[in-house]
Specification:
alpha/beta; 10-stranded mixed beta sheet; 12-stranded mixed beta sheet; 11 helices
Length: about 450
């Protein structure tokens, strides 16, 4: 590991001592031991370089150059937030600012009996057995297929776990309105590092729509969020994740879902912000007759880097999965897509489809795409593929000949390209909000 990278890893690690001392008065010994074990695992790997297989295209010089400081709370109010989902969705909302609960941004509706929506620190205190049953259990690739599994930033998040968001939906309960989990970062006082943790549990035969949103307001920061999502037997969960960080931010996220039998899990991700962003979406299918949807849209403009890694583990027979990721890359932007599907030896009758489609809008735009299938069963239907192209001149000419200005025609064609994934979202108000975000992103 280069010396400068090692030094920056030590800077991140140096935050642990003061934080551990601060939390020791209220925390429990097992939680502290777990944090420390994760810090040791991160220290053994350090910050990544392009020599690390899973990060070979993740070029973010500021990650190693900046002396990141551990974040503290900030006073953020609704008027400070950019327009978007918080005003467009009829939801119940729980919010973090710089990784700490922010009641001033909450919009809490009456929830069905047994539903828990609160800060993670509060949940650890008031519902310790429930939290201990799930926290950290899915956020690992240990024991799974694959030789290049790399979870160093998940270890870092776990080491600095202090607060976060917790949603628990009990057996056979349906939430009639979506739940928005909002993480806001304000770095006006200097470059900070933030480690939000979100834990979501949807028990057997429950139904819930979740919108997780990551928003930046000011400054340069490193955001390393981790989300764990448990989908019980027969549950139906729609999970939408939207990232609109500041142009100076670095966003490195891990999402881990454990999906049980006869359940339906729909994931939708939109990555629009940050100077460099990385999303690792991992879904572990553990029960038969499960149905999984993975839809994503990512846009890179200017000098942006947007890196999307997905992983789907089909462990058991008779399951279906459908994955469509679409990218729009302009200017000197760089996109990365690496999608892995593992079909285990026992997972007969698996039906898995994976597609990555990308539009390059300039000759200096770059995409690195690598769809992967690793199949160890012999009775399956699996397909994967990638296409890269540009806007068709004849389509653009046709729209201009109908009186539509070139820039508007171009934006409409790009939206039509992305519509397959954006319009697949059932959560009320989200498709409309994403349409506005996409057009705003393209018009800058």
């Amino acid at each position: 590991m280069p010396v400068d990278t090692l030094d920056r890893s030590r800077v991140l690690s140096s935050h642990f001592g003061p934080l551990e001392s601060l939390l020791a008065a209220t925390g429990d010994a097992n939680l502290h031991a777990w944090r420390r074990a994760n810090l040791e695992r991160f220290n053994a790997l350090g910050l990544p370089t392009t020599k690390d297989e899973e990060f070979k295209y993740f070029v973010a010089p500021r990650l190693n150059e900046v002396k990141w400081q551990l974040a503290h709370g900030a006073n953020v109010y609704r008027s400070h937030l950019p327009k978007g989902l918080i005003s467009k969705l009829e939801t119940t909302t729980l919010a973090l600012v710089n990784g700490q609960i922010a009641p001033e941004l909450d919009v809490l509706a009456n929830l069905p009996k047994g539903v828990i929506l609160c800060g993670l620190e509060e949940a650890i205190t008031n519902h310790p057995e429930l939290v201990n049953q799930y926290l950290g259990k899915s956020a690992t690739l240990d024991g799974r297929l694959g030789s290049t599994n790399d979870e160093r930033f998940t270890y870092l998040n776990s080491a600095y776990l202090a607060d976060g968001l917790f949603l628990f939906v009990p057996k056979s309960v349906t939430l009639d309105i979506p739940v928005q989990l909002l993480s806001v970062i304000d770095a006006h006082q200097g470059p900070i590092a933030v480690y939000p943790r979100i834990l979501i549990v949807a028990e057997e035969n429950s139904e819930v729509q979740i919108v997780e949103r990551h928003v930046g307001i000011n400054g340069e920061y490193l955001n390393v969020p981790v989300t764990e999502l448990f989908v019980g037997q027969g549950a139906r969960v729609e999970y939408t994740r939207i990232q609109t960080e500041t142009p100076e931010a670095i966003h490195i996220a891990g999402v881990y879902a454990s999906q049980h039998g006869q359940s339906v899990l729909e994931t939708h991700t939109a990555s629009f912000g940050a100077s460099a962003s990385r999303l690792d979406l991992n879904i572990d299918v553990l029960g038969e007759y499960a149905e999984t949807w993975m839809n994503g849209c990512y846009v890179a403009r200017g000098e942006q880097l947007v890196d999307c890694h997905t992983r789907l583990d089909h462990r058991v027979p008779n399951c279906q999965s459908f994955e469509v990721y679409k990218g729009v890359i302009d200017d000197h932007g760089t996109g990365v897509f690496n999608g892995k599907i593992f079909v285990y030896e026992d997972a007969q009758k698996t039906d898995a489809k994976q597609t990555n489609q990308v539009i390059l809008l300039s000759p200096t735009a770059t995409i690195n795409t690598k769809p992967q299938l690793e199949i160890f069963a012999d009775d399956v239907k699996c397909t994967h593929g990638a296409t890269v192209g540009k806007i068709r001149d004849d389509a653009l000419f046709y729209m201009q000949s109908r009186g539509i200005p070139e820039n508007e025609a171009r934006d409409l064609l790009i939206y039509a390209f992305a519509a397959e994934v954006i319009e697949a979202i059932d959560t009320p108000g989200v498709t409309e909000a994403l349409e506005e975000m996409l057009f705003e992103k393209l018009s800058k």
